[in-house]
Write a structure and sequence with these properties.
single chain; 483 residues; alpha/beta; Aspartate Aminotransferase, domain 2; Aspartate Aminotransferase, domain 1; 3 domains; four-stranded antiparallel sheet; 14 helices; 19 strands; 34% helix
């Protein structure tokens, strides 16, 4: 039994293919004399889903196999059939079956597309700075000089000393590094906001299993400053950790006020600024004792970030090995990633300085107003507070599971996320919404929409229309099930 291993042609070849003609790449794998044909039943078997099929005219069993990973999610709902035998085989598909429909992306708080400036900076750096920054030769020295310049550029943005900057693989490593440093003192207590990102909360639970105190937040989603002021006057924790902006709700946290309190009582302050940076100016964040950031949240590459920490005094490293980063973080630095990150940050900072966030805040407000007017029972989480201009956390009309919203929106071309998971009949409420006193039932109705700099006003309008359409459909489905 011979296994057919077709060499998949490029997307251009597929897109320009005409029924009855040969397709480059596949014809070499077919028996001599066989042409690639489109049988009459192809249109019926391939209605709308993106799929490519190999069909064998026999009753032999089929073996499922993805033909090529380059098509990615095109095969999510596709039937990819690869038959194994020595008979004749025909390939058929429709031209529309390989066209990617445009997805409108509303999940930028999860990750962002890479900016052209960042991509170009990465390519140039990967070509120019091939050496290890720790190597003693000139090629290594050039890479080290590029890192030093990048450190100075970031320090200017944050308003801190260049030696305060430690390059990391992202915010998760940076946050773990900060908490690992504080945990070196076995007597200190950790005060951490109850709405922190899981990489902070879970790290805090790991490093401070019996010394962790979660700081409460209000129903509106901001840190309870009265609680913090009252408790700081009574006792001194080892540090206070509060994010600059929440990733789920977009609510801005009073990090400047908390920094002032911590300075008053001489308590170190750690701020996860991952969602803040690239959406609001990062100037002044360097005043915090520890600050973390991640490139892929503002148009940079994945796998690179930073931790701002005091250059004076010992910082206990999370990773052990070489003496890189002044002994604070072992491992060869990602020169191309760092330079790409700085290119993305500087591009975003220019947009912020030009006032580009103002009109985007208006677009978001109009979207929220439309939802409130046309969707009964819809509520915007944290609406009374100042929020990131790109983020909407909405309590949607009731359905049996908010994951149905995500699936239906995905089918009509919108990528959004939820505030909780709903799978296999088990619901897990968002810890952020729980801290804000939302019940698990309420939290199960929350969707998050997070736009990007490239998102247009028309995209927001289209999303509102899509939500109204999906809501009507879900209401009809619930009525039928209950009748």
């Amino acid at each position: 039994m011979n296994q057919i291993q077709p060499s998949l042609p490029g997307l251009n070849a597929i897109a320009n293919w005409k029924p009855g003609s040969q397709l480059p790449g596949y014809c070499q794998t077919l028996p001599p004399g066989e042409n690639v044909q489109t049988p009459p039943e192809a249109q019926q078997r391939l209605p709308t889903c993106s799929e490519i099929c190999l069909k064998k005219e026999s009753s032999l069993p089929a073996k499922r196999s993805c033909l090529n990973p380059m098509f990615g999610r095109l095969f999510t709902h596709a039937k990819n059939l690869l038959f194994q035998d020595g008979g004749s085989t025909a390939l058929w598909f429709t031209r529309r079956s390989v066209k990617r429909s445009r997805m409108i992306y509303f999940d930028h708080n999860a990750t962002t597309p890479m900016l052209p400036e960042a991509r170009q900076a990465w390519l140039e750096a990967a070509e120019r700075f091939i050496g290890n920054p720790s190597s003693p030769h000139r090629i290594g020295a050039r890479a080290d000089a590029a890192l030093t310049e990048a450190r100075q550029r970031l320090a200017i943005k944050l308003d801190c000393d260049p030696l305060d900057i430690v390059w990391t693989s992202g915010a998760t490593e940076a946050n773990n590094m900060a908490l690992h440093h504080f945990a070196s003192d076995e007597c200190v207590q950790a005060w951490v906001s109850a709405i922190e990102h899981p990489c902070v909360l879970e790290a805090a639970r790991h490093y401070f299993p019996n010394r962790l105190r979660l700081m409460p937040v209000t129903r509106a989603g901001t840190t309870n400053l009265d609680w913090l002021s009252e408790h700081l006057a009574e006792t001194r924790p080892g540090f206070v950790a509060m994010m600059a902006a929440n990733n789920e709700t977009g609510v801005l946290q009073p990090w400047r006020e908390i920094l002032a309190m911590c300075r008053q009582y001489e308590v170190p302050f750690f701020c996860d600024a991952t969602q803040w940076i690239g959406k609001s100016t990062c100037h002044g964040l360097g005043e915090c004792d520890f600050v973390s950031g991640s490139a892929h949240k503002f148009g940079g590459p994945k796998g690179v970030g930073f931790l701002k920490c005091p250059s004076k005094g010992r910082v206990y490293p999370l990773l052990h090995g070489g003496p890189q980063e002044e002994g604070r973080r072992s491992g060869t630095e990602n020169v191309a990633g760092v330079l790409s990150m700085l290119a993305a940050l500087e591009a975003r900072e220019r947009s912020i300085a030009q006032g580009e966030t103002e009109k985007r805040s208006v677009w978001r407000h109009c979207f929220e107003r439309r939802l409130g007017h046309d969707l009964a029972g819809c509520e915007i989480v944290g609406s009374s507070q100042e929020r990131l201009w790109n983020t909407v956390s909405a309590l949607m009309p009731e359905t049996d599971c908010q994951q149905r919203w995500v699936v239906k929106l995905d089918k009509i071309g919108f990528a959004v996320s939820t505030g909780s998971a709903c799978a296999s009949g088990r619901e897990e409420s968002s810890h952020v919404l729980a801290a804000m006193s939302y019940s698990p039932r309420e939290a199960s109705r929350v969707l998050r929409f997070s736009s990007g700099w490239e998102t247009t006003e028309d995209d927001w309008r289209a999303l509102a229309e899509a939500l109204i359409k999906v809501s009507c459909g879900l209401s009809v489905e619930m009525t039928r099930r209950n009748s």
